[in-house]
């Protein structure tokens, strides 16, 4: 599948307007999350609740972004690269290779691998909750908000370089909320969060829509934080597979936030960034 057609629609934004739209985008994220969390008070099984939360969260976020674009800014969703779902094959492959490669590299460090004993019903429940909760809902909504709406607002006012970096820094900062961290762990998280945000941004620029980055984001979450394979400094009895890292180096373990902030994960992000740069460069050469 080819690259999505880029929008030619231009907006006239001053700094205060652009900043307000960025704040509004973050507000949409929190409002959608709060409404979606209503599903968790229902007396239903965990996987059904995760499915309902996913539907509500994604639906509300999509609807609010669409409403804001059309009624406040007077542009279409497509102008924020929120198009009909379409994924480039190269990024579909990357979506699998990135978390698998990082996981394999992390498991090359000293540690203890355990396949936890659980029945088929429990395994199915973990997979479904990971798919709808960590995978689809977070991957789709965060990409629509950060790499779709917010990135477009920053791009219109300050250009593409700022658009790739600023939402990425915000993305990293928001992950600090509700986590007890020291300064060292915060620095590790900001480096990793900004790096992964830049990675997603370049995927969007290369593919022309948020859907390739949403797939990469969702698959990463599904494998790395969905309790399919938990790689941490402690054995996780709730995961299907657990790898207890024996290393005491926070550079390898990622500190309080976990292996997503590790040097191995950051190297993975930057390998993908280089791939995106090469693809964008080649496209630029072909257009000459």
UniProtKB/TrEMBL annotation:
InterPro entries, per the entry: Rce1/LyrA-like_dom (IPR003675)
Pfam families listed in its UniProt record: Rce1-like
Key word Flavoprotein present: no
Keywords recorded for this protein, A-Z: Membrane, Transmembrane, Transmembrane helix
Domain of life: Bacteria
Native source species: Sporanaerobacter acetigenes DSM 13106
The CAAX prenyl protease 2/Lysostaphin resistance protein A-like domain, residue ranges: 127-223
Annotated transmembrane regions: 20-42, 48-69, 90-114, 126-146, 158-177, 183-203, 210-229, 249-280
GO molecular function: endopeptidase activity
GO BP terms, alphabetized: CAAX-box protein maturation
The name this protein goes by in its record: CAAX prenyl protease 2/Lysostaphin resistance protein A-like domain-containing protein
Keyword field contains Membrane: yes
Organism lineage: Bacteria, Bacillati, Bacillota, Tissierellia, Tissierellales
């Amino acid at each position: 599948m080819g690259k999505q057609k880029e929008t030619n629609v231009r907006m006239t934004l001053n700094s205060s307007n652009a900043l307000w739209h960025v704040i509004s985008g973050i507000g949409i994220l929190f409002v959608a999350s709060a409404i979606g969390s209503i599903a968790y008070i229902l007396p239903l099984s965990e996987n059904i609740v995760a499915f309902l939360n996913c539907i509500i969260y994604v639906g509300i976020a999509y609807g609010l972004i669409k409403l804001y674009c059309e009624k406040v800014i007077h542009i279409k969703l497509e102008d924020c690269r929120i198009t009909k779902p379409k994924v480039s094959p190269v990024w579909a492959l990357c979506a699998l290779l990135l978390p698998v490669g990082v996981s394999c590299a992390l498991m090359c460090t000293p540690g203890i691998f355990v396949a936890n004993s659980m029945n088929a019903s429990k395994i199915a429940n973990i997979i479904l909750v990971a798919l709808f909760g960590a995978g689809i809902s977070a991957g789709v909504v965060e990409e629509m908000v950060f790499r779709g709406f917010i990135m477009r607002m920053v791009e219109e006012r300050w250009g593409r370089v700022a658009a790739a970096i600023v939402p990425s820094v915000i993305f990293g900062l928001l992950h600090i909320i509700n986590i007890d961290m020291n300064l060292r762990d915060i620095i590790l998280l900001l480096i990793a969060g900004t790096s992964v945000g830049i990675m997603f941004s370049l995927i969007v620029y290369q593919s022309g829509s948020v859907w390739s980055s949403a797939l990469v984001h969702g698959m990463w979450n599904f494998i790395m934080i969905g309790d399919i394979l938990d790689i941490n400094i402690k054995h996780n009895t709730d995961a299907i597979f657990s790898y207890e890292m024996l290393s005491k180096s926070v550079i390898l373990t990622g500190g309080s936030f976990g292996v997503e902030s590790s040097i191995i994960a950051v190297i993975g992000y930057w390998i993908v960034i280089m791939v995106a740069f090469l693809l964008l460069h080649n496209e630029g050469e072909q257009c000459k």
